[in-house]
Structures are given as C-alpha cells and as structure tokens.
Design a protein that fits this description.
Length: 268
C-alpha cells in the first residue's frame, strides 16, 4: 500500500507521477567485478556474486614469484562480511589434452571480505601460516555508456520523519532520459511522468566510475520547485537498461525525513 502523501516532497511526487503497486527492488550490492590495489598492478581477485555466495578467483604468485591458483568460496555472514574456505587447485598443462587434476582441491586457509562501501573493502586471507590483508577496490576497465531513453519504475522510501505518518514508500512508473558526458565526467537523469515530454525531477552531477558501478556525490536533486542534494550510488548498466539508488536528507522539506530511492528501467 502506498503511504499517505503528507510531506511537501511526497505530495509533489504524488502530483507529478502516476503511482501504482510496485515490489521494492533488491537493495543488495552486486559484488561481481575485478578487484585490485591500484599501486600493486599485476595481481588481483575476481568476484562472482550469486545471491548470498561469492566465488573468488585469485591471480597471485607463489614463493618463487610464479603464478599460483587459489579460489575462495565466501558466504554472506549476515553481519556485513563474507567469509569461507580458500582452496589451492591444480590441473593439466594448458598445451596438453585435459587429463584432470593430479590432486583434488586442497583447503589451505580461509578468506574474508569486509565491504567499506559498494566499491571498496578489506580482503583478508591466509595460506597456511601466511596472512595477507589488502585494501581492495573495483578495477575500471573502460567507460560504460549509460546515456539513453528508458522506461521503468522508481521507489522512494521515507523514514525517520518527525511525523511518523510521513514515513513509507512512494512508487511510480515513468520514463528516464539519461545524459552522460564522459568528457566532462557528468551525468544527468531526467525523470519524466508518463505521457509527458518534460522532466519533473532531475538529478545531475559529476560522476565517478569504479569497476562496473558509477556514483555521484552531492548530486543536484531538483523536483518541481524543490532543490535538494542526493548521494547517488550503484548506478549500473544492465543487460536490458540501467539501475541505481540514492539517499537524500529531505529534512528541509519535512522535519527529520530521509529519502532512500531506487530506479530500475529498460532501454527504449
């Protein structure tokens, strides 16, 4: 059920967009990416995130500075960390027909990933008695284009309002016009009500890309005659379109209120 539109921002959103029932998009971060330490180019770790499980493959080097292959199998601990066993694996020389591994995978230690944000975190692992700690970040390979015209949905969840009746979700189906300017490093997201050609809410600012994700710190957030600031994170191109989320302190509009918002849209 959509909550009552009691705050100025909520009333404005209700007037600008066509609302309906909408299941909240998953707020979980997708950790799939290449991770590295920029000052230590030449090694790294790949994460493939499937629900509450991360399969990690390390490209690292052994005591003789020769490549060695480790894999980690980490599970979400429910407390903001991921951890599990670390294995040493071996196989057939790539120039020969596959003859299997001379020995099964051996557990040589454990691995733990503790995120600090959606783009950075601490990786700790041990191989027998050798302990390693790395401050890792997503590695950017190339600029991922996001510009285009999309159709999708928005969900805003208001919380911490002094007037508790203002808390709750606001949902909308709408169009998005995303303008990305790689030369200046800026992005603009126009939110357009169905049947209109004019944006009623716009977020814009200088973006940073890390790996597969973009974020915008202190983005301009203009909605009707309201001018706010939003922290946009996890903007990501998907196979069908784009998704992302933001948080905005809307205390100036309605006392105590914080807005957490989510987009998901397909390319037209």
């Amino acid at each position: 059920m959509v909550a009552r539109f009691s705050s100025p921002l909520r009333r404005l959103l209700a007037a600008l967009f066509l609302f309906g029932a909408l299941v909240r998009p998953a707020a979980a971060v997708d950790w799939s990416d290449i991770w590295w330490v920029a000052a230590e180019s030449g090694w790294g770790v790949n994460f493939i995130n499937a629900d509450n499980f991360i399969f990690a493959t390390f490209f690292v080097y052994g005591p003789g500075n020769t490549p060695i292959w480790y894999t980690g199998q980490m599970t979400d601990n429910g407390n903001g960390t991921w951890s599990g066993p670390l294995y040493l694996t071996t196989g057939t020389y790539f120039g020969n027909p596959w003859a299997g591994s001379p020995q099964p995978p051996q557990q040589v230690g454990t691995v733990t990933f503790t995120p600090a944000s959606s783009v950075a975190g601490t990786l700790t692992y041990n191989v027998n008695a050798v302990n390693v700690t790395k401050q890792i970040r997503r590695q950017t390979l190339k600029t991922i284009p996001l510009g285009g015209y999309y159709s999708g949905a928005l969900l805003s969840v208001f919380s911490n309002c002094n007037d508790s009746s203002q808390n709750g979700p606001v949902t909308a189906y709408l169009d998005f016009n995303v303008t990305q300017s790689p030369g200046s490093g800026t992005i603009k997201i126009d939110m357009i009500p169905a049947g209109s050609t004019t944006a009623s809410c716009t977020m814009s600012g200088g973006y940073t890309q890390e790996g597969l994700l973009y974020y915008v710190s202190n983005a301009s957030y203009v909605c009707g005659n309201l001018s706010l600031i939003a922290q946009i994170s996890q903007i990501k191109a998907t196979g069908q379109g784009f998704e992302g989320q933001w948080v905005s302190n809307v205390n100036a509009v309605s006392a105590g209120c914080v807005e957490n918002g989510y987009w998901s849209a397909v390319l037209n």
